[in-house]
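Dear Dr. V.,

Thank you for agreeing to look over these. As mentioned in my earlier message, I'm a first-year student in the group and I'm still getting used to reading structure tokens, so any feedback on how I've presented them would be very welcome. I ran two proteins. I've put each sequence directly above its structure. The first is here:
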Amino acid sequence: MYRKHLYPSKIGLILAFSSIFLYFFFNLWPLVFSIAMAFTNAREDNLFVNPGIISNYDNAINCVDYLKKEGFSSDVYRVFKNILINLNNTFNVLNNTIHVINSSYDLTLIGINLYKAYDESYRIQSRVKELNTVLNCSRYGFKTDVLIIEQSVLMDLDVISKKISEAVSSYTVLDRDSLLNVTYTTLRLLNRSIDYFLRAVKDYDGYLSSVKENLLRERDKLMLKFIGLNNFIELFKDPRFYYSLYKTLLFVATSVPLKVLVGFSLALLYSSNLIIGRKWLRGLMLTPWAIPILLSGLTWNFLFQPNGQLGRLFKLNIYTSEWHAFLVYNLFETWLAYPFIMTVTMGALSSIPRDVIEASYVDGANLWYRVRRVVFPLIARPLAVASILTTGASLQAFLVPLLINYGGPTGTVSVPGLGSRTGNLNELLILFGYNRATIDKEWGYASATYFAIVLIIMVYVAIWFNIYRRSRR
């Protein structure tokens, strides 16, 4: 009999192979990409760089080479020299102003000096416009938005003008100390600017070489490069990583017994025939599973804030006390995970033959003896599996510290032999890697962190598999 097919055989094979290919591609590609990033200097600003930005730096570097080759043009020299003269004149006038302030505090003389300084600063601003013109690489055939002169120098010149303008407009109402403070601040900026332009005038080649080095350094930051094991070397020298590992292991050591104890105890309680309405109570105790974790986290954060109900009641401050926050992490993790332990334990309890329990009653065993000698050995295997799984969950805890207080408070993390660094004192491993990516913007470093975390989890899984295999023999 002829059977109809939904698709011809060739179409079916094409669809099947396409589905398999897409499945492996979208599952393996992110994994391969993440592992590869661990061996690069990947950051937010160099992973997907606009080629136009690189071209801008290339043109600026070529422009510097051109200026170096052609020599110091008369226009550039004239502008640099004039700015240097104006800066020196301003410096001398302000020095005289300080002498007047400290000796006679004659407001007339102070005003005359400040207005002279104001005239010089106005000339400086005019020279800056000329400077931007003569150092405009486009006029030499190199189209770029990158400035040849350092941006910090232009900012200093702008602040100098603003400070002098401020002094001119308010010297009659300012007290001696305030006026001296403004003047000394301006002199410090003038000193820095004079040194910069003096170096440019005296050593043209050296000045352009330093400009080129800065441009190459900035361009190099935008280039994604293979750096081998550098990220891992930095990671294993970072005291924050070891402290994060310590806090994660401590969190596992404290939260897992707490979760197992609460889940096991509730399972025993609601398996008793003495509890009225235990079916309804079982369902009620599964509430943490029904509530979205984000809502649970926000609720716990609200309750345990310093001004929250439980925060005030127990005098807890999760934002300033490392161990107050750590305690709340454990309570929140227990709230999230005890339904799992309780469900597994209740399933195991339901499989225990009733006659075994009744026999222990007949033998006169008390409650503690029945739990320890009769019940626990019969449910030990499923409870051990549940403990292994919840331990893995604690090792990978991320949302718990993130939702409570972002892994804070912030403080100094010290590890003997590795020094000290400022960091969050409750950053568990997953959150540590997340913060390196989102706060530090070091994606390669974050990938190396997650690679190390995966290895730690694999070691944990291998140990438990080995223990489980031996227990089966």
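The second protein is here, in the same arrangement:
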Amino acid sequence: MPRIPCSPPRIFAARWLFRAACTALLCWSAASSPAEEAAKGQIVPALELPASLPWDLAALSTPPAVEWLDDAAPVRSLLYVGEPFQGHATRVFAYYATPASIGGGAGDRKSAADMSKGPWPGIVLVHGGGGTAFAEWVTLWAKRGYAAIAMDLAGCRPDPESTKKNAVVRLPDGGPGQGHDAKFDTIATPECSDDWPYHAVANCILAHSLLRSLPGVDPARTAITGISWGGYTTCLVASLDSRFRAAVPVYGCGHLSDNSCWLGDFARIGPEPSARWTQLYDPGTYLPACRVPIFFVNGTNDFAYPLDSFMKSHADVQHAAKNIRIQVNMPHGHEAGWAPAEIAAFIDAAVLGTPSLPLMGMPVVDERGVQCRVAAGGPVASAALVYADATDSGPINKLTWQVVPAEVGADGALTAPRPPADAPAFFFTVATPAGLQVSSPAIVVTPAQ
């Protein structure tokens, strides 16, 4: 099969204008909303998407061909057709589980007998660097009442001959690996089809199209969450695929060439390729187009996705509901990344209509101290002001953080003593009576070093 070129911007612009005109004509003539179009299965591209968009969203809206490797186990396994790579067709390995396949789920929301019948909400689970499709992860979500799919984004499948947990082997028709060369260096070639970010995004959207088509899945109630590079990919997919009802990127964000653990990779490939990579694959390019409710989850000291780039990504979202959870010294890893109960709470609220997490406004400093307001959701049991120690002078993800109790007013107003004037960053956190925690946007006073 032919390699996929990254067309020049002029061609992309013409293609985009044509696509936008067709979309507008379709919506006008049929008097259907983007939500109605999404329910039919088609992605409705946001007009804010850049002209340099390398993905064919109309093609990715169609469910891919699938081969079931095991359709009887509690956790099924399958291969589906992905995008061409280096001139050949590819297939992607995935795990899939439902409340019926594992024998019930959803906790107290419905009985196991009810949940075994569906229709179920669906979720796409996106692994991070060094990861793969995790059977444990799809089982976790199936127990919560979801039809869950998790795919390997490195051209691999489980190794049947290994006794090591999550050991993998290359698929003969797999896509690119997940090394730094596939993530960054291939930007120097004129094709997109050898770039890992291109395939990662496409394969997530294809997995979503497949999930929506499966028996028992409610195509109007789907979500996506991803960890680390999977969080990065989730930011991209949520900005492109209008059919999702919720997205939760964990750790991963955009503005990676501004500050991240990959600054050395950008320096190695050089300024022009770095600018091209940012244009094509940085979430900061696409998040302004995001229309999917999105919940950003990260830690104060993440080694890969530091708080300044993370907050820029949060600020990029202007057209969707958004919330944020910043945990002091949150560990970085797959299990740590899927552990927060707030992830399911946010997604449940979006797709099932359960109570929403508290939503906090921007902190404001004045002569009385620092204030913030709980704008929606609740109730709130406790609150705190978190600020970086002013005596620290290192990078933003190496700072020491102090936690000070805040007063919770009856009107949802939070008040705390003013942090030191030279504190590099600060934010509020609140906890619900159930112990669920969310944050205000962080105020980053000084840039990372």
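From my reading of the second output: The chain has two domains: 38-352, 359-444. The first helix runs from residue 9 to 30. Does that match how you would interpret it?

Kind regards,
E.
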